[in-house]
Each structure stands twice: as C-alpha cells, then as structure tokens.
Amino acid sequence: MVPTASAAVHPPVTRRPPGRAAPRDAPLADPSTLPERDPHRLPWPGREVTSGGVTLHVRETPGPDGVPAVYVHGLSGSATNWTDLAALLRTRAAGTAVDLPGFGLSRPPASGLYTPAVHSDALLCFLAGRGRPVHLVGNSMGGAVALAVAARRPELIRTLTLISPAMPDRRPDPRRVSDRRMLLALLPVLGRGARAALAAQSPRERAEQVVRLCFGDPSIAAEHRLAEATEEYAARARQPWAFEAARQTGVAMVAGWLRGESLWTVAGRVQAPTLVVWGDRDRLVSPRLARRTVAAIRGSRLLMLPGVGHVAQIEAPEAVARAVAGLWDAVADGSWEDPGPDGR
After folding, report:
1. In contact, 10 and 316? CB cutoff 8 Å
2. How many domains does the chain contain in total?
3. Which of 7, 164, 260, 331 has a CA 20 to 30 Å removed from the CA of 226?
4. Is residue 208 one of the residues assigned to a domain?
C-alpha cells in the first residue's frame, strides 16, 4: 500500500517536447459528475474470489450494473492502492481491485514462481472466468500486466487505463531516484545487498521510503494513511512468501528489459480505447516514456500531471478520476473515435 495524499489539486496539462507532434489530450469529465472524495475512507471490504481457475484476494467497490472496472496494483502495492480512485468512480462502475498472486492478501501461485508473465496469466484467466468485458486500470508493474492482457485478449477489455506503466527502459537515470537502494534492488545480481537492506527495514521505515520514492510531493501524504500502510507492511512481513514475491517479480521485470523483451511491440497490438496517465515527477518510470507509450498504442490519449509522481491515482485521485471517467463516458456515447491504423 502507498499512503493517500491528504489534499492536492493538480491541474492536468500536456507538455509538448520540441520537434514532435503533441499527443491528443484526454477528455475530462465534469467534476460535478463525480462524488466528493472522503480522505478518511477505509479500504473497501475484501474477500477471496475464484475465477477461471485462479483464486485472488480482491477488494470490491459497489456500483451500477454495466461494464465493471478492474484495478491492478504495482510492484510494492496491493488492492488498497485503489481505495480513493474506486470511490470516485463508483457512480459509473462497480470496481474490483485485485491482489496479484503473492501480493496483498493473495496466496502465492502453486509454482512458487513470480514474473510479470505469471501475473499476466493469472489476471487473464481471472478476467476470462468472469465472462464479461471490463474497464481495466493498471499502475506501474500492474500497468504492464494490464497492457499484456489487453493485447492478448482484446475481447475482455472495454477500455484500458495505464498509470505510469512499467514500460521497458534501458536508460534509467539514477540521479532521478531519491533512494538508490530501491533501484539497485531490482538488478538481478548486483542488487542482493540492497534487497537485504530493504528487508531489514521496519514497516514504518518502509512506508515512509515508498512515499519518498513514489510521491511527487511526499509532504502531502496523510498521517493516517501512513499508519495504514505501516500496518499493511507489518502484515506482509508475516507472510512467508511476501518478500520473495516482490523480489522475483521485480528482478524478472528488469531482467526482461535487459534481455530486450519489449512491451513496445505488445503495445502495438492493443485495440481497446486507451488512456495513458503520467506524473511529471515520476522517479521510477521516466516521464519521457509517456509520449512514446501513447505513440505505441493506436488512438490513445495522454494526461500529464505536473508535480505528481509514480502513483497518480493515490497522489491526485480527483484529476485521474476525471480523465478515467472522461474515457468511459466518451466510449459509452461514441465520441472516442478510432482514427484507424494510419492516423492518431
């Protein structure tokens, strides 16, 4: 879990680097059509659900009948990362935030192996078993997992939202990372010492470190959310598989980048209407990848958030909710046009 911001208003802007055509802006829903955010909202109730032969712990947000939303967390996260965004979107769609295998309160896979491909397979089977298209929303590693599922089974995905997806990047810049141990820990061999140091942290230290790394402005993290995150990290520390799940998944993700395995080709196969959201202070996945991601996914739109970091759905939930609701509304009323294979 990453603590939710206490209060933040980040007007959306799209910035245009010189020499390139600007991507199309995301449509934004009228804020008056969204419910007011309760900054003290508790995480949605959770339970285990078996679907498509896969059992995951999920947190469910009640909402209207119609196309449901499914939310997928990142490497250090869980279903609680979506508490506020799911609440803001609950008048448009019922939500299911999943804990990927070995994360949150989900049990480990029978194989004991954790890679992005394992998580993609699990999510795909889970969605296929439910038998209806969904609005799929993913952050960071969860964004990469969602992207792979959308490319493989387009009939399962009504819309796709990617929030700072973990797109391959062979040019990481350690100067942009506030705690270099977190970056070093993802390296397959060199990161052993860093991983051991992270494992020795107290739950409170871990929560504070994640905020420093993932927020554009760490000072806005609410104290009660830090306390919630501390409790969650303490609970995960008691799970015998939790550290290995995060270690194997992170190392496999970076190893895939180094081997040249590329989500960029996968992105070109996505058919669903897609929204890409990025914070311009993202210290984990470079904001310069935002434009490339939009260019790789036909007809996608971009929301760039100034002052926001890696977990925009937590740090600026109102701004993200307006864009996601705008996507859903535009698809529902037919105004999200597909320019075809030769245009944007």
Report:
1. yes
2. 1
3. 164
4. yes
Instruction: Judge whether 16 lies within some domain.
Output: no
Does 17 fall in a domain? no
Q: Are 287 and 280 in contact (CB under 8 A)?
A: yes
- Give me the chain's average pLDDT, please: 87
- Domain CATH code at residue 104: 3.40.50.1820
Residues 83-99 have pLDDT tens digits of 999 999 999 999 999 99
Q: Indicate left, alpha or beta for 46 from its phi (over 0: left) and psi (-120 to 50: alpha).
A: beta
Which of 47-61, 242-256, 321-335 comes out lowest in average pLDDT? 242-256
333 has pLDDT over 80: yes
| C-alpha to C-alpha distances, 75 to 102, 158, 206, nearest whole angstrom | 11, 24, 14
Residue among 41, 319, 49 at smallest CA distance from 163: 319
> Residue 116: inside a domain, yes or no?
yes
